[in-house]
Design a protein that fits this description.
By secondary structure, this protein is mostly helical. Helices cover 50% and strands 4% of the residues. The protein contains 29 helices and 9 strands. The chain has a 4-stranded parallel sheet, sandwiched between helices. A hairpin with a 2-residue loop joins β1 and β2. α21 crosses α29. The longest helix is centred in the N-terminal third of the chain and has 32 residues. It is globular and about 100 Å long. The termini are far apart. 49% of the residues are buried. The C terminus is likely disordered.
């Protein structure tokens, strides 16, 4: 060992020791913060499925590759980071001797070839990512960037570190080539040989380059260890457990889509008959009341902004960005952590848990963070502004796009639950809707004895459960389908088509009440449970004696479809629920419904969030339309899993849009830009919102918004009266 190698070895050991010590300290701090969260025992179930999903999503990059070039580039960088860590390890042998290498595998030609290929592709990948970040920088002219609000220096820092580590890996090899100490042939490592051809024959070159490579790598480790909220770096490690512990690992897309998490206290579902607000947690009032998985979510966010780029609220000028919400919660959690770890915090009655002695050593900033309200405007110093919280439509675009499986919607609804149930703080116009649900069983307050009025005038009898026992499907009409004038046409169309196809179905009539979707998503879990339990009892009685496979329900509203099929199981209601477009597609395919006159004029289809993104039903509505229309379906630019929300979900249907551009107008403009004369929908909420948007644009005579079922009915029974365009307001 020469004098140069003695110096390089000492320096490499010193900077590594500092970096490792800081990294261990950082990991212990992050672990302590995450463990502050509430229990979530269900996250440890089905470890086999969790392991498989984690490996598929990480190694296969299934979420990232949806983004094409950026996904492929990120995959090469990820693989480079994992595999080429061996070359960082090898650098420790090279600082000791310029001819050093990894024991055993370091001399294998296949190892040299693999690392050469990964290095080159990693270089290409990181350069592509750097260009993409620069082209999408927040300061660029024109439009909002998905990086708006991200800590840009951290992204640039990480990318330059990766680039330099890859470059110096080639430089080390180049010096070995130049000094004739390289173990791999030209055919396996052509780039390394090319670099060596331009480097001098310097015997200490490999050791010096190895020291620089180690210094760059350890500088990265030191910087991220001093910045535990640096998600753009820490996600490399945290993404694996965050994906492993996702809510439902078997789901093909975002785990936080479909059903909401039940309301829990200390990790157990809350029983409202026994719950006590002074002993049980009602929603989330403080950051430590999120589950530990929630705190892991916040820590894992990589600030990529894919959720932000897809969010309908953000894209129409609302203050909500799912990314910025998560980052605010993350920063607050880590700033508040010293106070919490010292024993501080408020109990469920609002009293301080710590003694003065426990908090005496804390700095004023930690104590101030502990006093911040989780929800509050700028004047009160709140972490999350109320306008942010109430802008969410729960469309799930953020969850669907997140490459590390953050469950934004669950966290937003948990905060809403506390605001509604304990603080009684929510947009005033939603209060009428909640009172109507409690008193009338529907959001509009229509009389219950008018639930069957939609059947009047049909040329066949609509059977009721209880009057007939021999039915295959229970037709869940829903509140909109029973009371809202436009939705009644869809209800009548579906009933007519089912009758035409010879399907035996029955309705509950006045025995049906609201599914509870708007109550649950606004945060009023109490009203949801009241309505849901009543419906579960009614449905269980209607299906008494049948196993689940024969407890079939068809629903026209995706919100009812989602609630009955995905959430009633939490309350003992196990049913086989299909959307009406699924059943109609089946009936057409089976030859029980035959389109005879194609509908012309051009048709585009709007994917409802709770049908498409939340429940992955994209094909069935398109199959129905494909059979019923003249020519091909014209797709909007944002369709299928990236469909743009109509603005009605998350109980936003009953809240006025006061900030920014109206979401439904944005979507209508996109639909009208296709040139289609008909906008087909599969949801009564979407129908209302898009109709209002079309009329607001003054295009009611040029563009018609109707349900897929009505399009099919016009083709199957051209003589069927359709009643013209309906612009009537919602009413009983």
């Amino acid at each position: 060992m020469g004098s140069v190698q003695i110096v390089t070895t000492i320096l490499a050991a010193a900077i590594t020791a500092v970096a490792v010590w800081l990294a261990v300290r950082a990991v212990l701090k992050m672990t302590a913060v995450i463990r502050l969260g509430q229990p979530a025992p269900e996250r440890f179930s089905d470890k086999g499925a969790r392991t498989k999903t984690m490996l598929v999503e990480t190694a296969g990059h299934t979420r990232m590759l949806k983004w094409g070039v950026v996904g492929a580039a990120h995959w090469f960088v990820m693989v480079g980071f994992i595999v080429l860590s061996l070359l960082v390890l090898e650098a420790y042998f090279e600082v000791v001797t310029p001819t050093g290498g990894l024991p055993i595998i370091g001399h294998w030609t296949i190892f040299g070839l693999a690392t050469e290929v990964i290095t080159v592709l990693g270089l290409v990948g990181i350069l592509v990512l750097m260009v993409i970040r620069l082209r999408n920088r927040p300061t660029r002219p024109g439009g909002r960037s998905r990086f708006t609000g991200s800590t840009m220096w951290q992204g640039y820092f990480v990318e330059w570190i990766v680039l330099l580590v890859l470059i110096f890996g080639l430089v080390i090899r180049g010096f070995k080539v130049a000094t004739d100490h390289f173990e791999y042939p030209l055919w396996a490592t052509p780039v390394s040989h090319a670099v060596g051809a331009v480097l001098p024959d310097w015997s200490d070159g490999a050791s010096i380059a190895a020291l620089i490579k180690i210094a760059i790598s350890m500088t990265w480790l030191i910087v991220i260890s001093l910045n535990v909220t640096m998600g753009v770096a820490w996600h490399r490690f945290l993404a694996f457990p965050n994906i492993f512990f996702k809510r439902e690992p078997a789901k093909p897309a975002g785990s936080g889509l479909g059903a909401l998490r039940p309301m829990t206290s200390q990790g157990k579902p809350l029983d409202f008959e026994e719950a006590d607000p002074e002993k049980d947690q009602f929603g989330v009032a403080h950051v430590e009341q999120f589950s530990w998985k929630g705190l892991l979510d916040f820590s894992t966010c990589t600030e990529c902004g894919r959720c932000q780029s897809q969010c309908p609220a953000w894209n129409t000028g609302k203050p909500l960005s799912p990314k910025l919400l998560v980052l605010s919660l993350r920063d607050h959690a880590y700033a508040k952590a010293p106070y919490l770890l010292a024993g501080g915090g408020k109990d469920l009655t609002g009293e301080e848990k710590a003694t003065q002695a426990q908090l005496a050593h804390l700095d004023v900033l930690s104590l101030a963070e502990g006093d911040k309200p989780l929800i509050g405007d700028a004047e009160s110093g709140g972490v999350i502004d109320p306008d942010v919280l109430w802008s969410c439509t729960t469309c799930g675009a953020c969850v669907e796009q997140c490459p590390v499986d953050i469950e934004h919607v669950d966290h937003i609804v948990d905060m809403r639950r506390y605001q509604v149930l304990i603080e009684s703080s929510f947009p005033s116009e939603a209060g009428v809707m909640l009172r109507n649900l409690e008193n009338k069983g529907n959001p509009w307050g229509a009389p219950q004895n008018t639930r069957e009025d939609w059947t009047k005038g049909l040329d066949f009898e609509v059977p009721r459960v209880g009057e007939v026992d021999d039915f295959e499907y229970l037709f869940w009409v829903g509140c909109a389908g029973a009371f809202e004038d436009r939705a009644k046409k869809t209800t009548r169309a579906v009933a007519t088509l089912l009758n035409e196809a010879g399907v035996k179905f029955a309705i509950l009539g006045e025995g049906e009440t609201c599914s509870g979707d708007p109550a649950r998503r606004i945060g009023n879990e109490f009203v949801f449970q009241m309505l849901a339990q009543q419906n579960v009892e009614t449905l269980n009685e209607a299906f008494e004696g049948r196993d689940k496979a024969k407890r079939k329900i068809v629903a026209t509203c995706p919100h009812c479809f989602n609630t009955l099929g995905n959430e009633y199981g939490q309350l003992g209601g196990e049913f086989e629920v299909v959307h009406h477009t699924q059943l109609l597609a089946h009936l057409v395919a089976a030859g029980k419904l035959t389109p005879v006159q194609p509908v012309d004029g051009g048709v585009t289809y709007h994917d409802p969030c709770y049908l498409g993104r939340h429940n992955r039903i994209f094909a069935a509505p398109r199959e129905v339309l494909g059979d019923a229309i003249e020519g091909d379906l014209t797709e909007m630019p944002r369709n299928s899993e990236r469909s743009f929300c109509c603005g009605a979900g998350g109980a936003r249907m009953w809240m006025e849009e006061k900030i920014g551009k109206r979401i439904n107008v944005d979507r209508v403009e996109e639909a009208m830009a296709t040139g289609a004369k008909t906008v087909a929908v599969g949801c009564p909420f979407c129908s209302t919102m898009l109709n209002d948007g079309v009329n607001g644009k003054g295009a009611g005579e040029q563009v018609e918004v109707i349900d897929v079922a009505s399009v099919l009915l016009r083709s199957v029974k051209p003589e069927q009266p359709q009643g013209g365009r309906d612009t009537a307001p919602i009413g009983g």
